[in-house]
Amino acid sequence: MSTTKEQQFSSSSTAIRVEPVQARSAARVNALLDAACATMHEFGYEQLTTAMVAEKAGASIGTVYRYFPDRVAVLQAVAARNLERTLEVLGQRLRSDAPASLAGSLEVAVDALVEVFRNEPGFRSLRVGDVLDIRPVASARGGNSEIARVIRDDAEQRAGLRLDSDARVAVESAVDVIDALLGRAFLRSDRGETSLIDEAKRIAALAVTGLA
Q1: Which of 6, 9, 89, 157 has the highest count of CB atoms within 10 angstroms of its CB?
Q2: Is the distance from CB of 46 to CB of 126 less than 8 angstroms?
Q3: Neighbours of 95 (CB within 10 A)
Q4: 155-191 confidence digits (pLDDT tens)
């Protein structure tokens, strides 16, 4: 397979140099992303380099560059994987908790995000990628917008709520607030500061009060 044509990895819009179509290659890519996450958990995404990823993974720098052209591509791939895992946890919780209101849906979203913060190394640094200053992706939608979309779709399709344009904007704004507050809650704590987690739920509920 050629290593000059940029191709897509999984559902991510992030370009990497070789598409990991074989299980061994996919496992190698995931190992590199795991190494990046472990490094970010300790140092933050701002300091991440491809050399740090290679060292943490016990791989050569050439192996990293085989799949990722630069550090931005690594960060984008991690963000895409983080978003995929976040949406999976969120979807499962929405189905199991079956909230009947937008406020309830947002409370479930906070709990889902807290679970991901606690279980995914490095998530507190990069999250779903909206913190990146450089985000050259094919879609204009950010990670938080995708989270808001899942919440809105569940509210309309499962709970049967009718959301007007104000309600839809409010959900997206609430998700941005949740992201900011949980980012602070987990800044120096692997478990998260309870007061800030509770505040995220309170402010999110206020954002949609009276809308649905």
Answers
A1: 9
A2: no
A3: 11
A4: 999 999 999 999 999 999 999 999 999 999 999 899 9
